[in-house]
Design a protein that fits this description.
The chain is α+β, with helices and mostly antiparallel strands. The chain has five helices and ten strands. It has one domain: BirA Bifunctional Protein, domain 2 (2-Layer Sandwich), CATH 3.30.930.
């Protein structure tokens, strides 16, 4: 059973959140309570450890930030929620060496189940993240996944989900290194949405799967 504090940080600059995550990880020990942070960031591009700077076509003066998460380049901005998972997976992985793969599935399935509540069908693909599975927006990406796991099996970074945002900056990059990919948000697919409601339902799904 995971003991988790859920913290909605509202809007915060990416660099500030990133610094707080690093400090949290440095200070935590086996008794530290796990946390999930929900944040919206001001516009920025972030580069993962495997990112190629050439995947930024033209930044248009949007800040570019190097991080230590997995993956390539993505965009964060208002109207997108980013969920950071500051969890200790040590006991889970000691019991099941494949738990890390299960954990990634938990994150992806939580997004898929949440979207289904808004009549949006989605799927996984080889590239990390969640994609629309049917209709005009089939194969468009709606959620991005990028994690970091320490040697002690502490996790940080997480998932970003496009809710109601300006998608134009995604045209300034090759998202996740993909040149021919559409990006979409929930608002485009279902105009009757509530950001607050989506946050609540997603967290319910995450907690359910983590403690299943």
């Amino acid at each position: 059973m995971f003991n988790i504090n859920i913290i909605d940080k509202g809007k915060e600059d990416y660099k500030i959140t990133f610094k707080k995550m690093i400090n949290f990880i440095k200070k935590r020990n086996k008794n530290t309570i796990n946390e999930i942070w929900i944040v919206e960031h001001n516009p920025c591009f972030t580069l993962g450890l495997n990112a190629n700077i050439k995947n930024i076509i033209n930044a248009h003066n949007i800040p570019i930030i190097k991080t230590d998460r997995g993956g390539d380049v993505t965009y964060h901005g208002p109207g997108q929620i980013v969920i950071y998972f500051l969890l200790n997976l040590f006991k889970k992985i000691i019991k099941n060496k494949f738990y890390l793969f299960k954990f990634i599935n938990i994150l992806e399935n939580s997004i898929i189940d949440t979207l289904k509540m808004y009549n949006i069908n989605s799927k996984k693909k080889k590239k990390p993240g969640i994609y629309i599975s049917n209709g005009f927006w089939k194969n468009a990406k709606i959620a991005f996944l990028g994690l970091k796991i320490t040697k002690k099996y502490y996790t940080y970074h997480g998932i970003s989900l496009n809710i109601n945002m300006n998608l134009k900056p995604f045209e300034y990059i090759y998202p996740c290194g993909c040149k021919n990919i559409k990006i979409v948000d929930i608002k485009t697919l279902n105009s009757k949405i509530s950001k607050k409601n989506i946050k609540k339902n997603f967290i319910k799904k995450i907690i359910y799967y983590l403690n299943k």
